[in-house]
Amino acid sequence: MLGNLNHPAWQASAPTMAFRVKPLSGADAKNLRSLVHVNYDETSPAGSYRERPFACPDGVTAIVIELENVQLAGGDSSTEPFLLQVLDASGITQVASQSFTPGSAAALVATSPIALTAGAEYRVRLVCNSTGQSSFLCGRLRVRPVSATAEFWLKPFTRLDADPTVLHGNMGPAYPTVATCAKDPRFASHTQLAYLELSTTAAEIYAQYCNTIALVSGNRGQPSVFIDQRPLDPPLQPAGNTTSYVRAALPSQPLARKSVRIFSGPQMSPVYPNMTDNHGNHLCAVYVPSGDDTEVVPVPARRPVVPYGDSKTAGFWSLSAGRDSITFLLRDRGIPVVSFAAGGWTLHAETGSTLSVDACLPLARRLVECLPSKIIVGIGRNDFNSSKFAPSDLITQLNNLLLAIHQVAPWIPVELLTWTREVTETDRGGVSWAAMRASFLGLATGKPWVSVLDAARYWTQAEAGSFTSDAVHPNDRGQELISSAIAGDEFPWTPKRLSSLFAYYSAEGRLGGSSLIGAVTASGTSPPSITVSGTAVMACRVRVEVNTGGTPGGAMKISYSFNAGRQRIRQNVAVPSNGVVELAPLGVSVTFSSATYNNLHAYEFNTCVAQWYDLSGNGNHMVVPAGNNAYSPEFNLSSSAFGKRPALAFTPTRRLRLTGISLAAPYTLFLVGRCASQASVRAFFGRTEVGSGLIFYANTPTLVAINDETSQINATVNATLPHCYILEVNGASSKIIVDGVSLPLTPNSTLSNKTLTGLSIGSDAVEGWGLDSDVMEAGVCSGVLSQDEIDAIVARARHRYRLP
């Protein structure tokens, strides 16, 4: 019922915890299903998973989870087991979990029947790092009902995802990114009256809708189904504030083929703060009987992407004769491509030696002939390596090409694709590859139509042997990273690939909850107050809405959800006479007063963080000091300073700490964050006790410093701005690196290289200097990082958090 694991919706719920998946060109033994390689790079964090929300249809009381064609990848003799799980809508309570170990022969893996509550929402999860890295091939994952009152669900049926690539009239061919719109993996956002068109002989279908409009403004309209251009009367009526399956009978002559359009419903923009999803009736999927003849009518051809480059861009040396090249991988995602790349190609061959915009105009005209949606410029590597141009002349001619493209078609955006890392990179003309890449990136400056895909940061030079086929050309793994970046996925590199990683923390990772609750924000006309109590088992943003107005003990009913409605937990919960409603399974209760509430009243609050789990797999978890939840920083679902990503919001009295460690210098710390004010001393990193390590803090309105109780080094920084900080503790060679720039130190003294035995984030436990704003992520590494690794950390932070 849920489909291919490489579908973007599978990683939207928890992208930081998601393992990587690569589609393969092969098919199963029956030639019916393309396979995917799960966790192919085996770099997933401990507990890594992919999941999708699943709403149990009315009348369905038991399901099994099936995973097709599970088998070891070629060359593997064994792997660790994986888990198939069902959790409740919150992801807190585990309903079922079963373990499976892939073998050498392809097999259908199926759980035993799992009892569910009809109409309730759940999460279906595949965990591939429970006892170790599990890496294997498989086909599609299915949720199959085995007990139901509706006969439809017990017969073979096919799920057709309302994927944005197949929706007619949709705003775009991809799911929205976190930076532009909070992801909800149940549907494609902003699909106002878009539709899925079928040509089918089916007599009935079920349409799955996620209704969010009643969350904020009541029901404003129903979606429609058109049969042979005529609307089905009455329109479909999905349930409010939930995901539901609506049956549609399709009247016609038996076995007659008909045109059916299933529409997404009316939608509207948010009316309350922090509700970043579009609200309305969203089409999730359509279910059709497998025995009927059904075809999905494709959308009209979209404008293609045009990659212009050499053999790297063309996909040479991929395992399956180009099947896993950038072009094919983008087409797998429904993105049309017209490739203008060729092996051995150079810019010089197209433009000649004359350095001018006019010399580049013929090439520019060819690149825009098919009216592309964007042009990817990855050319120049062969020109530099073969000295077709002098290095400075190559940069000049690439700039001329960008100007020529803009002159010919000023409406077409251009993305610069930097040259990927190779095992051996020999200077040419006295110029290094790093310097050329920096000049290449500089071409985007002052050109609003030009953006950058910094592919040189998708793997480091030390990793080049693992991501190239012949020490030069990207292999299947490398091309998968490049194509995912072009398609707009998360930044392809992650700190979890650092070989020296000691600990890594992300606000989008695992966050243990606290008894400390943030302030309640109420909306609506004169909303009565509520009180919140209890200890949350996870950190999240909670929204409580009044669905039916009234007083406690009367007709009053509420719904509640987590994280801006992306996890809908309970709907239409009656409020008892004492006014206390437990927000199960969060562990928090809300108490309503005896006042009268109406159905436009809503309340939001954040739970706080008592444990910040280490994603490195080393078990170095950050916790509140002495188990005191009063130190818990608040969860911030959407940090306005960091691209609307989740953050930990610290105040000067709150901190998390790591103790019981012993990390000898040299070592490296990194952190993405800011302070709201630099007028007072603000510590990003601090000690847990005297002698435990160091303080990194904003110690004056213009300076940040590292102090290890013996020595101190300062650097001039406006710490109220968002930054990516990298701190190298290495005696006289210590550095403060801000957004990739190693800053001058005043004084340039020698740190004492004290062994790190404890570390605080958000405050120094000895002096009490505390932070007053957001931290997005932090990490600790043994030793000193390479320049490649520093560049990768910074490039990812810029992409992920919209740093300058």
Name a few traits of the molecule.
single chain; 804 residues; mainly beta; 8-stranded antiparallel sheet; 7-stranded antiparallel sheet; 11 helices; 12% helix; globular
Protein described:
It is a single chain. The protein has 804 residues and is mainly beta. 12% of the residues lie in helices and 35% in strands. The protein is built from eleven helices and 50 strands. The strands form ten sheets. Strands 27, 38, 39, 41, 46, 47, 48 and 50 form an eight-stranded antiparallel sheet that branches. Strands 28, 29, 31, 32, 33, 36 and 37 form a seven-stranded antiparallel sheet that branches. The two termini are 42 Å apart. Residues 173-182 and 270-276 have low confidence and may be disordered.
* Poorly predicted ranges: 173-182, 270-276
Question: How many β-strands, per DSSP?
Answer: 50
Q: How helical, in percent, are the residues?
A: 10-25%
Strand content: 25-35%
Overall shape = globular
Q: Work out the radius of gyration.
A: 28 Å
Largest sheet: 8 strands, antiparallel
SS-based class: mainly beta
Instruction: Name the average pLDDT.
Output: 89
> What is the number of helical segments per DSSP (H or I, 4+ residues)?
11
How far apart, in Å, are the first and last alpha carbons?
42 Å
Please specify the SSE layout and strand pairing.
Blueprint: H1 9-12, E1 21-27, E2 34-38, E3 49-55, E4 60-70, E5 82-88, E6 94-100, E7 107-110, E8 114-115, E9 121-127, E10 136-138, E11 141-148, E12 157-161, E13 195-200, E14 204-211, E15 225-227, E16 230-231, E17 243-249, E18 258-263, E19 267-268, E20 279-289, E21 294-296, E22 305-309, H2 311-314, H3 326-332, E23 340-341, H4 347-351, H5 357-367, E24 374-377, H6 381-385, H7 391-408, E25 414-417, H8 433-442, E26 450-453, H9 464-467, H10 476-486, E27 501-506, E28 511-517, E29 521-523, E30 530-534, E31 541-548, E32 557-562, E33 567-574, E34 580-583, E35 588-592, E36 602-612, E37 622-623, E38 634-639, E39 645-649, E40 656-663, E41 667-673, E42 682-686, E43 695-698, E44 703-707, E45 712-716, E46 723-729, E47 735-738, E48 741-742, E49 756-761, E50 774-782, H11 787-801
Parallel strand pairs: 22-23, 22-24, 24-25, 25-26
Antiparallel strand pairs: 1-2, 2-10, 3-9, 4-7, 4-8, 4-11, 5-6, 5-9, 12-20, 13-18, 13-21, 14-17, 14-20, 15-16, 15-18, 19-20, 27-50, 28-36, 29-36, 30-35, 31-32, 31-36, 32-33, 34-35, 36-37, 38-39, 39-50, 40-49, 41-46, 41-50, 42-43, 42-49, 43-44, 44-45, 46-47, 47-48
